[in-house]
Amino acid sequence: MGKGTKVVIDNNVFISGFGWNGKPEEILKLLQDNHIVNYITSEIFEELRRVISYPKLNFSESLQIKILEFVLFHSECVEPEERISAVTEDPDDNKFLECSIAAKAEYIISGDPHLIKLKNFRTVEIVDVNEFLNIISKKNL
C-alpha cells in the first residue's frame, strides 16, 4: 500500500463512484493512484457485498464483481478494537467509526448525514466527498 492519507471510505461513496460519474469517481482515482489508503473491516465489506446486489441499483453481476475486487485490492483490512455507539440514529454507521479508530485514519469520507453531522470523532475528521477533495487538493498531490 502507498503512503497516502489514511481514510475510511463509506460504501455509499464506492457505490456512487462506480454507478454514476462525478466527484465520488475522483475519490476512486485517488485510491487507485495510491494518494489515499483506504481501510475496511469484514463487516464493512459484507455490507458492500449485500448493498451492491440491491435490485434498485441495477448493477450487473460483472460490475458487482469489479466493485468488490477494486475495494479488496485497494484497501487494507483491520479488526475493530472496540465497539462504538456514537451514532444512535443509525447504529449500523458505527462500524465506520470503529474501522477509522482501529486504522488510525485521518478521515472518514461519507455521504451519510448521520456520520457527516458528527464532523469528527476523536482524532478522525468526517467529511463529504467535496470537502475531502478540497482538503486533498491543498496537500498538493
Quick synopsis:
This protein is of the alpha/beta class and 141 residues long. The protein has helices at 11-19, 23-32, 42-51, 61-73, 94-103, 113-116, 129-138; strands at residues 5-9, 36-40, 75-77, 107-109, 120-121, 124-127.
Question: Secondary-structure blueprint of this entry?
Answer:
Layout: E1 5-9, H1 11-19, H2 23-32, E2 36-40, H3 42-51, H4 61-73, E3 75-77, H5 94-103, E4 107-109, H6 113-116, E5 120-121, E6 124-127, H7 129-138
Parallel strand pairs: 1-2, 1-4, 2-3, 4-6
Antiparallel strand pairs: 5-6
Helix pairs in contact: 1-2
CATH C-level: Alpha Beta
CATH superfamily: 5'-nuclease
Assign an overall shape: globular
Q: Give me the strand/helix succession.
A: EHHEHHEHEHEEH
Q: Strands of the largest sheet, in order across it?
A: 3-2-1-4-6-5
**Major beta-sheet overview:** 6 strands, mixed
**Beginning-to-end CA distance, first to last residue:** 17 Å
Q: Using DSSP, what is the number of strands?
A: 6
Count up the helices.
7
Task: Describe this entry's structure for a reader.
- The chain is α/β, with parallel strands linked by helices and 141 residues long.
- The chain has a single domain (5-138), classed as Rossmann fold (3-Layer(aba) Sandwich).
- It is 47% helix and 16% strand.
- Strands 3-2-1-4-6-5 form a 6-stranded mixed sheet, with helices on both faces.
- Strand 5 (120-121) and strand 6 form a beta hairpin.
- Helix 1 (11-19) packs across helix 2.
- The protein is globular, with a radius of gyration of 14 Å.
- The two termini are 17 Å apart.
- The model has no long low-confidence stretch (mean pLDDT 94).
